Amino acid sequence: MRASLSRPGVLIATFALLVTACGGSTVTPSPAGSGTGSVPPSSVAPASVGPATVPPGGPVEIRWYCCLGTGEDPEQQPVEKKVVENFNASHPNIHLTLEIVTYDNARDTLGTELTSGNPPDVVGPVGFGGDGAFHEQWLDLAPYITKSGYDMSQYSPESVKLYNFEGQGQIGIPFALYPSELYYQPDMFEEAGLEEPPHNYGDKYKMPDGTEVDWNYDTIKQIAKTLTVDGNGKDATQAGFDPKKIVQYGFEPQMDDPRGAGAYFGAGSFQGSDGKAQIPADWAAGWKWIYDGIWTDHTIATRPVRESEAFGSGNPFSVGKVAMTTNFLWETCCLDDAGKTWDLGALPSYNGKVTGAFNADTFRILKASKHPDEAFTVLTYLLGEASADLLGIYGGMPARSADQDAFFASLDEKFTQKPDWAVAKAGVQFADNPNFEGFNPAYNETLDKALNFWSRFTGTAGLSVDTEIDKLKTDIQAIWDKAS
Predict the structure, then answer these.
(1) What are the residue ranges in the chain where pLDDT is below 50?
(2) CB atoms < 10 A from the CB of 272, how many?
(3) Residue 309 class from Cβ within 10 Å (0-12 exposed, 13-18 middle, 19+ buried)?
(4) How, if at all, do strands 246-252 and 229-230 pair?
(5) Which of 15, 120, 245, 289 is 20 to 30 Å from the Cα of 388, by its Cα?
(6) Helix (H) or strand (E) holding 94
(7) What predicted TM-score, i.e. pTM, was given to this entire model?
């Protein structure tokens, strides 16, 4: 789990080194990393297209800009540079160069290059947050897909749809996916006398009295109480339970970002259809549910507790202190101390609908590219011939359906209990759309305000929740008014 909103990918490299065959992912504990499996060459996309002869005046210069997401780590760069070398050797008509800018400076530097008239061509890996920061500056790929005959059927319709925006077109092609799922500890369920969570979406959950109920957040709330235990062995349903001495919590929502936490209750955005600031009703309901879990039910750790070293420094599930957590597939980066039996279950529903916060990385082409045809050739190479090597250092589940079994088989080499990866595959269909990291005005300032709100919200008892939520909306609108 990301302990301080680190971006997907940093964890990836380290994991990739540990599980080379599994195609690990990040290099230092940060977000986004699941191991990535090596992809059989026969299953990758068709070779990139483009003339093989050198045009008059020499090769067309194309710049690949990294890193709005992962990719900057020293352990990742040799692979990226080798990809560039291989591309140039097989495409004499194009000369590709790699421009690596540290994540902390990547947005400012790219903005400067755009305004100065010196834009790169291909950008990536970039997720939905990077997309939002450069809203409406990405090239619609649909004409190039049609012209080249690029096969989009190799990707699920749900993943393709994630990159199709009204008024902008198909601004991306799927590459690395990080769906959400429920991680849980079977041993804790057995000790509490509870059935394990369902693995199939739509299945009911059997309560201790034998009744079958919907697998939703009401059910999560009930069983989380039984799974929350204090130092004297009392659970949160029993008399004498001491909420100040909890040693095991029942549930941990994805806590890095209030937008992501809300997205598990329903897709939404801070920007309403009228362009004004809003707090989506599902997000507000989810935040209230979490606040009650922290301060009333005591089934969710407070921010100070979860950030303590004893509780995983921000990821209590990773150290075996939580029975259930909702999180992205990159959580697999950080489960070495979570025990040897954890498994995956279906996400709960809210108001009859399942939604999962979703992370994904891909490569994009800027509208400002002076050579979009050649840039598309580079793009399809990165998504095709180079994908196995790049996924191996970035750590995402391959968006290409044919490559996913090999990816998960490689993860089984690390997680010998063989978690039910079919749950992760199924999670793609429940991706929040619009994505929680999508565009809104004054993107960076708005995010800072939201994170400050969340820190106070999850760390302070006795708040008037409605008042805090209304204030956040007012503060965001004030930021937008000032920026306009």
Answers:
(1) 1-44
(2) 13
(3) exposed
(4) antiparallel
(5) 120
(6) strand 94-100
(7) 0.83
